[in-house]
Design a protein that fits this description.
- Pfam families: Vps62.
- It is globular, with a radius of gyration of 19 Å.
- By secondary structure, the chain is mostly beta strands.
Length: 344
């Protein structure tokens, strides 16, 4: 069970090289803001009413971690501005015992207002310029970050707990053609599902997605969802229409140029906008891990079902947005076998 991080929702926008959107919105090199259509069609997310681990601010998260390599501390001080001074083998490691449920992991400050959808935890919106089959394309990714992923129970043991959750399975992706939405991709755990936009439940023009309790994986419907088909219904996620979350009310905004692998800060809204000013964009290029390294079997907190690494109580934290295939050519994170469903 590889973790996902950047809890993310991805809006994939594919625009023909017509005048469907302003040139400044089609060119990452000259863009000065997130495209209007990215906000107009941003997914409406529902967090389970029984959720206990809420959306988190990455700036708060880094205040409570040290940097470790092979379980050895290499630094007790890290900020978003200094992230790229560490290599990709480094793990952000909680300075607190995660089993004590420290407040920053629960992140109750990020609980969305059930009426307005506002969360004090900023999301991250990344628009990506690329060309697919000769057509100009803009993919808009909505990343939702949680400081903790609380897994699922298998044979009496909770598995897949980990610090840091960039659920790019918190990703919903909408592809646009000539300014009209065509399809939506929702990532969940190590995979996901693509749908025709017309198949999605809509609130206004915005597709509805559900965040699974604890794991924060994205689904198009509420209810119970089997995570691994090989295990039948042994491992499931549960979703419900609890707390409504509107990422457009608080986010950091960026453009990513896939041809040069460079990020540009273009401002956001709310707390995300104010924090973004002094942070720069280098943190987005860091390919290290946003949580603890999987605890060894010698750690009393660790327990692995059937002694399988894939079914351990604690897994390693995930990588960030750059590790989520921002340059993909299909709506799916994996470009292979991307089946677009026409019904829920």
């Amino acid at each position: 069970m590889a973790p996902l991080i950047v809890t993310s929702l991805v809006l994939l926008a594919s625009i023909h090289s017509s005048n469907a959107v302003p040139t400044s919105h089609r060119r990452a090199t000259t863009a000065s803001s997130i495209p209007d259509y990215a906000l107009t069609y941003a997914p409406h997310v529902y967090i389970s009413g029984t959720e206990q681990w809420f959306p988190s601010d990455i700036a708060t998260h880094v205040e409570h971690v040290s940097m470790e390599y092979d379980y050895v501390n290499v630094s007790t001080s890290v900020t978003l501005e200094t992230l790229t001074t560490y290599n990709s083998s480094i793990y952000m490691t909680s300075v607190d015992n995660v089993e004590d449920d420290p407040e920053w992991l629960l992140a109750t400050y990020g609980k969305p207002d059930a009426d307005t959808g506002y969360s004090a935890a900023p999301g991250t919106i990344i628009a990506v310029q690329k060309t697919v089959d000769g057509e100009e394309v803009v993919d808009v990714f909505y990343f939702f970050f949680y400081s903790y992923n609380h897994g699922t129970k298998v044979l009496g043991t909770m598995i897949d707990n980990h610090v840091g959750d960039w659920e790019h399975a918190m990703q919903a992706k909408i592809r646009f053609s000539n300014g009209e939405p065509q399809n939506v991709y929702l990532s969940a755990h190590t995979s996901g599902a693509a749908y025709a936009y017309s198949a999605m439940t809509l609130e206004g023009v915005r597709p509805v997605t559900y965040s699974a309790v604890g794991t924060h994986a994205n689904y198009a419907t509420s209810g119970s969802h089997s995570i691994y088909s090989i295990l039948g219904n042994l491992v499931t996620d549960t979703t419900s229409a609890g707390y409504y979350w509107d990422i457009t009310q608080n986010y950091r905004g960026y453009w990513f140029d896939d041809s040069t692998s460079t990020f540009t800060s273009v401002g956001g809204v709310g707390i995300g906008a104010s924090e973004e000013v002094g942070e720069g964009v280098d943190w987005l290029s860091w390919l290290g891990f946003w949580g603890d390294e999987e605890y060894p079997r010698s750690d009393s907190r660790q327990d692995c079902v059937l002694d399988l690494d894939e079914l351990c109580h604690y897994e390693s934290g995930p990588t960030g947005p750059l590790g989520k295939n921002l340059g993909r050519s299909t709506p799916c994170e994996s470009n292979d076998d991307c089946d677009i469903k026409t019904s829920l």
